Amino acid sequence: MEQGFHFIRPLWLLLLPVGPLLLWWWGRRNDPLQRWKGMIAPHLLAHLVVGDSERWRPRPIHLVCAVLVLGSIACAGPTWELESPPFAEDRAPLVVAMDLSAAMNAMDVSPTRLERAKQKVRDLMALRVGGRTGLIVYTSSAHMVLPPTDDAALMEMFLAALSTDLLPAGKGLNAGSALTLADKLLNAESDPGTIVFFTSGFDDAQIPAFVSHRQHSRQQVLMLAVGTTEGGPLRGANGQIQTGSDGAPVNAKLDDAALQRLSTQAHIPLASVTSGNEDMQWVQREAVHHLQIVKDNSSVHWKEYGYFLCYPLVLIALFWFRRGWMVRWVFVLGFAGLAMHPTSAMAADWQVADWFFTPDQQGRWYYEHRDFEKAAQRFQDPTWKGWALYQHGRWDDARKIFETLPGADAKFMTGNSYAHQFEYEEAKEAYDEALRMRHPFPEAEANLRLMVTLMKQRESVPAEDQDDESRPDQVKQDKEGAKGKGQMQVMGKRPTQLPADVWMRNLSVSPADFLRTKFSVEDGQPAPAPASSAGGTPP
């Protein structure tokens, strides 16, 4: 979906010409030349009519016309940027494709291109708390490092092990094989995902693969260019700067022209890695937007920028207090505004926000700023109010509201509320009712199975241990705004699992040697000897 400038409610623009037409009519009505034109000869009229000798000054009619013009534009809802629905859980899977060619050792980006790209992946993981992120690397061949996971510690361990000598140096960059591998990983996910390439170059022979991917795949591709067009010296494996046959440092430049050709022909968004966090925020926004667009176009929301026109409208309103002005225009505009207002005005308390925003709009603002308590107080819409109470942790109050709402989604959230209160039998009944209303309902089916499992665990655990062992320690709810597209997992007593770093320390090789051996085996080559014993089992 294009994100160009447009209006959310374009029919309001029909009011736009009313302002100029009103000004034209008022000018003709108050023009003395028009009143005497039929009585006095035109060549004498200009000399016989004595006009106003004062210079031009603004009149109430001018401000009325300005209000009509600005108000019509504001009500039309100008926008050019998508926003994520506040109830949408960040479930957008993502796979990072990292270029491990020798050019990534260039030092035009401090400390090197590869180290900067690895740091960006860490920043992305920090932004995507709970989101699943995978990692693959490529040069002339592509290899998976990690499937999509939300384990930041595991990702950090393998990121630190990445270096340009893990893969054999080959001819060209086979980005197409990385694209195929990433697409395979994301196709195994239930939701559409995003593939993010970190690279400093591109082989034009791979462009047809990306064009075909855009036409046939539900996964989107983003390109992040790492480096500068001026380039920088290459750092060798020993940390020294590489030199050519003439003794001069080898300079590696960003292949910006090839990346631009890819972006143009395959319609792939292209951005540069920045020193701040704007690039990773852009990636995260694009991933979430892509998920929302593919899953349900009706859930796409555009940011409302018409509110900014309220500031000039308030400044214009200040002129109504000038002496001698016609105050009756204020009452005309006021009654017109009240007639067009979609909801009744709330004047229970004299807050300035009540003059401009409905209670639901105020609740939405508090919800987006994660002040769920105030959001629950402001919301009048029962669905939104129930969600705010649910997010605030007032599950019993939320349950009472969801029980009054119709539909399978409301029953689903009723079951979630019961689950948070460890009332598994009631939650099971709510999920059963949701399944009777809608089938298939995968999320309700999964939660129903979990409730049955937890009920069995509760029966098998001694009474004195039930409160500690059989209660769920985490609940992830559907946050699609009562659309039933999220998934809740209620986890009870789980088998003990070793952390990823402890598991890796029990191996006899370091993560770098492990990856080097894995890649060699996948390429059909003999496994290399470990580079060092530094990654062995610690004492």
TrEMBL record:
Residues 530-539 have a biased composition (Low complexity). Gene3D superfamilies: Tetratricopeptide repeat domain, von Willebrand factor, type A domain. The keyword Transmembrane applies. InterPro entries: TPR-like_helical_dom_sf, TPR_rpt, UPF0353/GerABKA_families, VWF_A, vWFA_dom_sf. The keyword 4Fe-4S does not apply. Residues 469-483 have a biased composition (Basic and acidic residues). TPR repeats lie at residues 408-441. PROSITE patterns: TPR (PS50005). Keywords: Membrane, TPR repeat, Transmembrane, Transmembrane helix. Residues 91-266 form the VWFA domain. It comes from Dyella japonica DSM 16301. SUPFAM superfamilies: TPR-like, vWA-like. Residues 458-499, 518-539 are annotated as: Disordered. The chain crosses the membrane at residues 6-27, 305-321. Pfam families: VWA_2. This is VWFA domain-containing protein.
